[in-house]
Amino acid sequence: MNYGLPLLKALVEHFKKLPGIGEKTARRLAFSILDMDGAEVREFAETLLQVKKSIGFCTRCGNLAEGELCEICKDERRNGTILCVVERPADLYVLDASGQYRGRYHVLHGVLSPLDGVGPKDLNLERLERRVREEGIQEVIIATNPSIEGDTTSLYIARILKKLGVKVTRPARGLPLGSSLEYVDRGTITRALENREPI
Question: Whole-model pTM?
Answer without folding.
Answer: 0.77
